């Protein structure tokens, strides 16, 4: 059987409110899930996100939504990145929208004009919640809870979604599917530099190869081989930061068959070549694959960046 699964994170809410918000600078966040849904807003820098929506790079001002229970991970691409994180108890949404947990939001597939409007509205609400929780003025708890409800209703109203459970149907419950994928991801992390195949994993899990392919497509929006290559690219970062390894050495140690495939996957994953990344990060202390690590940042500066996304009425009062 495969090894221990990526952990399910317990979200501790603030002051008995149905959410938690904080700022951080991510270096590497290992695969994990939590019962709360999560919004990520990039204030500075570039961050790679892998989730059920696929693999993409968040740049300054970009927004990402992670549904409840979805395995996801983040990787800082540029130094000194800063994110706003807002985690909300989905039970808050279910009071007004019983179907919320079954909604699959298609934010990244919206027409550009509609996406811009939704993005501006959602960013303003996230920024205001974060600002209010920092300033703690009279009535801030009531105001923030109301803002969280408005945020969720804005998501439902302005972002297209489809209803229905995941289309994985080999007799397992949804939670069992999540556990199975977690085991598989954990095994792939531990053995990413070795020769492993989807057939081997399917045999270990006693499922068909076609079922495994559907599981990856529905839960991580990618193929088994794409995910394995992404893990290998991430593993290569710690080696690239060490000057004693040649690019060829890094490629082979990370599990790539040759330097050409390494360059192709790396550029697709991080939108730069291994040599370009090494130039900017030589000597950096890069966490290993499966480890989480966060960087230091200036909170005062971070909140000054946050101000640009506050609604106009609030900016005028500052």
UniProtKB/TrEMBL annotation:
- A single GO molecular function, which one? sequence-specific DNA binding
Q: Does the keyword Transcription regulation apply?
A: yes
Q: Which domain of life is it from?
A: Bacteria
Keywords, comma-separated and alphabetical:
DNA-binding, Transcription, Transcription regulation
Spans traversing the lipid bilayer: none
The protein in question is named AraC family transcriptional regulator
One Pfam assignment? HTH_18
Any idea where the HTH araC/xylS-type domain is?
182-280
The record's section on InterPro entries has: AraC-bd, Homeodomain-like_sf, HTH-like, HTH_AraC, HTH_AraC-typ_CS, RmlC-like_jellyroll, Tscrpt_reg_AraC-type_HTH
């Amino acid at each position: 059987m495969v090894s221990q699964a990526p952990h399910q994170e317990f979200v501790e809410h603030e002051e008995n409110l149905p959410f938690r918000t904080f700022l951080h600078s991510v270096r590497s966040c290992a695969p994990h899930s939590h019962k709360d849904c999560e919004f990520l807003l990039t204030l500075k820098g570039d961050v790679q996100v892998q989730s059920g929506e696929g693999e993409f790079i968040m740049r300054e001002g970009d927004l990402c939504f992670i549904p409840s229970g979805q395995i996801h991970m983040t990787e800082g691409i540029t130094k000194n990145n800063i994110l706003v994180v807002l985690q909300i108890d989905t039970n808050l949404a279910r009071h007004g929208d019983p179907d919320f947990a079954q909604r699959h939001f298609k934010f990244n597939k919206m027409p550009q004009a509609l996406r811009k409007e939704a993005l501006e509205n959602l960013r303003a609400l996230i920024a205001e919640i974060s600002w209010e929780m920092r300033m703690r003025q009279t009535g801030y708890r009531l105001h923030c809870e109301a803002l969280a409800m408005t945020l969720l209703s804005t998501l439902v109203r302005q972002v297209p979604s489809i209803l229905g459970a995941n289309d994985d149907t080999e007799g397992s419950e949804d939670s069992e599917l999540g556990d199975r994928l977690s085991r598989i991801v954990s095994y792939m992390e531990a053995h990413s530099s070795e020769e492993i195949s989807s057939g081997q994993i399917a045999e270990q899990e006693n499922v068909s190869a076609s079922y495994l392919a559907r599981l990856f497509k529905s839960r991580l929006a990618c193929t088994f081989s794409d995910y394995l290559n992404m893990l290998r690219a991430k593993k290569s970062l710690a080696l690239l930061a060490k000057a004693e390894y040649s690019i060829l050495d890094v490629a082979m140690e990370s599990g790539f068959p040759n330097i050409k495939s390494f360059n192709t996957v790396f550029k697709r994953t991080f939108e730069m070549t291994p040599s370009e990344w090494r130039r900017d990060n030589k000597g950096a202390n890069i966490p290993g694959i499966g480890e989480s690590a966060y960087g230091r940042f200036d909170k005062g500066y971070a909140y000054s960046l946050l101000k640009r996304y506050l609604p106009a009425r609030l900016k005028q009062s500052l």
